[in-house]
Amino acid sequence: MIATGYTDTYARDNLPPRDQWPDMEPTLPELHYPDRLNCAAALLDEMVAKGHGASPAIHSHEGTWTYAALLEKVDRIAHVLRGPLGLQAGNRVLLRGANSPMMAACALAVLKAGCILVPTMPLLRAKELSVVIDKARVNAVLCSAALAGELEGARSQTGMAGPALYFGDAEAAGSLEQAMAGQPASFSAADTAADDVCIIGFTSGTTGVPKGTMHFHRDVLAICDCFPRSTLRSEANDVFIGTPPLAFTFGLGGLLLFPLRVGASAVLLERLTPDLLLKAIQDFRATVCFTAPTFYRLMAPLAGGYDLSSLKKAVSAGEALPKATRTLWRESTGLEIIDGIGATEMLHIFISAAGDAVRPGATGKAIPGYQACVLGPDGEVLPPGEVGQLAVKGPTGCRYLDDPRQQQYVRNGWNLTGDAYRMDQDGYFWYHARTDDMIISAGYNIAAPEVEEALMCHAAVAECAVVGWPDEERGQIVKAFVVLRPGHDAGAALARALQEHVKQTVAPYKYPRAVEFLDALPRTQSGKLQRHVLRSAPPK
After folding, report:
1. CATH for 438-535?
2. Residue 422 has pLDDT above 80, yes or no
């Protein structure tokens, strides 16, 4: 490894052993980067130096920031981090907020300052944030003022002593905006190594215990130089828009990193419904849209009421794209959806297809820079047509933060995504199912055991099991099978009470949309829960 530029080496010290990493040799000339690299400077400072200073970088309902304006805000925030907050290179900074220009500026500033970005979903509750704070040993927080409540709860639970600054309310005493005002408008990027960790993205596993996925400065540029270059063919005049949060690597790439890499711009809006996204595409003349299949399905019937003539590309990821949704969107807009599969462990999309290369029903082929195959139960490569575990390798890959599950995700140099696929004779990959207990609902990853734990905290619940249940609109929904304690009556009122209880315990999108009461859960003779029996049960 290259000599680190960090004073605080916690992240590097807790990388998995090198022999547990996936194979990550770059296979394309553009994926070779210098040993000393700061990805934020490469994405922003270099674009300004190339003449993009006056070009639009970020649009919102409040106006447009040029590349030069964005750079100035990033540099002022970087000064705040390394100055008043007293952070060192390699310290971890938790970032929390809905999509907005300030959220983007904070993310880039953390990277440019030589700190490590720990992005968190806006809907997470204090309990979930506490786990992230402890696992990443967070040193400081930048948070939207609108989300202060749960964060303060998490800080209290963890006893976190590090500082927190809030943005979005510039008039509030001690706000990030006020701290920025007294700082210089120029900041020299930290001297970081290409293989210094710059992002720790958290993802839930089947146990519900979050895993911190660590990515390097070079990884950030690698995802910009793969999918957007080969499949999207992004250009400087593109305007990116979409729904995924910047805290989700799908959104971080598609709505911030990818546009910056080519001198394009992005629209960042805090609240989007299907009709509001369509209106925003019309109003901002967006050319590239990123969202989940659920949104495309809901937007399709409404599309005729908006001027979508600017839209050239529609990217779908986060969950399997139903063929019916692809057809409905194409019939409504004339556009073929660009499907893709990515993972937090891989940072972004690694299998996709666009234009004439699309094969409806298939996710696509491994994009240039990546390899993929289907493995059998013994780790052998299966021939075309057989269903097995999807395995992938490329310039990015899984490196968990101090987690024994590294050896489950990476085997023999391959990343095992937890998806069951088959590959056809032409190299197209066809999705079949998840191979673990992760539920993917409307693009959100939901760990079944985490919802079960929340339900078990309710006084009426004796035991429970949570599974993904097929749903035409959302792909899957969370369904809970519940056995009650004596003295509690099953019924709609109790089902609603359990749903509200879960919403108040974990992020609201994780609540069970269906609740079924049972006398007992199906188990093997050894007492193991038989989830497959529940999944195959007829609906009631």
Report:
1. 3.30.300.30
2. yes
